[in-house]
Design a protein that fits this description.
- The protein is α+β, with helices and mostly antiparallel strands and about 210 residues long.
- Helix content is about 45%, strand content about 25%.
- The radius of gyration is 21 Å and the shape is globular.
- The model has no long low-confidence stretch (mean pLDDT about 90).
C-alpha cells in the first residue's frame, strides 16, 4: 500500500490535502501524471478563491455573502435557544474623514489593518466579509449571547488600542443580531439597525438588536 500526500497551499496555509493510495509504487511517469493533474486542480482552486476574495483585504467579498448567509440562517433553525449563530456588522468610524485628511493610500492601509485584526480576533469557524467600503460582516458560529458579545467587545478594544501608522487612533462601531427563526434578510436588517443605534449613540461601541 503506497500513499501520496499532496498539500494544497493557499495564502501561506495548507487548506486541504489530497491523498492518493495505490497497491503498487507509482512509476516516474505515473507520478508526473499525478502531479500534473494536481497542479491543474491547485490552479483551479486558486482561481475560485481569487473570485471569492476582496482584492484589497483578502477577505471574502460581497458576491459570496448571500450564499454564506443562507447557510448561516439554515444553521439557526437547528440551534437551541441558549446558543445562536450571530451576525455582526462592523463599520469603521469617521472613515470619510480619514480618506479626506490622509488620502486613499492611508485609508486603504486602515482597511487592510482592520481586516488583519478581524482575522486575528476570530477563528476559522467565523466567516469574515468586506461588505463594501468601510463595512465588514462577521458570521459567527452558535454561541451564548454573553460569549458572542464578549468576543466582539474584545475586537472593538483591539482596534481602539491599535496604533495606525500616520492616522493614529481608529475606532469601530458594531451592530449584532442573533439568528433566530427569521429570514436571512431580516437578520442582516436587525444587525444594521443595531449598528445605526451604535453610530447615533457615540460610536466606538457594540450594540445588540
Amino acid at each position: 500500500r503506497h500513499v501520496i500526500w499532496l498539500p494544497v497551499w493557499m495564502h501561506e496555509q495548507v487548506r486541504v490535502c489530497l491523498e492518493i493510495t495505490q497497491s503498487t509504487a507509482p512509476t516516474s511517469h505515473g507520478f508526473d501524471v499525478i502531479t500534473g493533474i494536481f497542479n491543474v486542480y491547485q490552479n483551479y482552486q486558486s482561481l475560485l478563491d481569487y473570485s471569492e476574495r476582496d482584492a484589497l483585504t483578502g477577505l471574502l467579498n460581497r458576491k459570496t455573502f448571500d450564499e454564506h448567509l443562507l447557510r448561516f440562517a439554515t444553521a439557526a433553525q437547528t440551534s437551541d435557544h441558549e446558543e445562536l449563530p450571530w451576525l455582526a456588522v462592523i463599520d469603521i468610524d469617521n472613515f470619510k474623514l480619514v480618506n479626506d485628511r490622509f488620502g486613499h493610500l492611508f485609508a486603504d492601509e486602515v482597511l487592510i489593518l482592520v481586516a488583519n485584526l478581524l482575522r486575528n480576533a476570530f477563528g476559522t469557524q467565523h466567516r469574515i466579509f468586506r461588505f463594501g467600503g468601510e463595512e465588514f460582516v462577521v458570521l459567527m458560529p452558535p454561541a451564548r449571547k454573553d460569549a458572542a458579545l464578549a468576543s466582539l467587545e474584545a475586537f472593538r478594544e483591539m482596534v481602539a488600542s491599535h496604533e495606525f501608522p500616520q492616522v493614529g487612533a481608529v475606532t469601530v462601531s458594531v451592530g449584532v443580531a442573533g439568528a433566530k427563526l427569521c429570514s436571512p434578510v431580516e437578520i442582516l436588517g436587525q444587525a444594521d439597525q443595531a449598528l445605526y443605534y451604535a453610530k447615533e449613540n457615540g460610536r466606538n461601541r457594540v450594540c445588540q438588536y
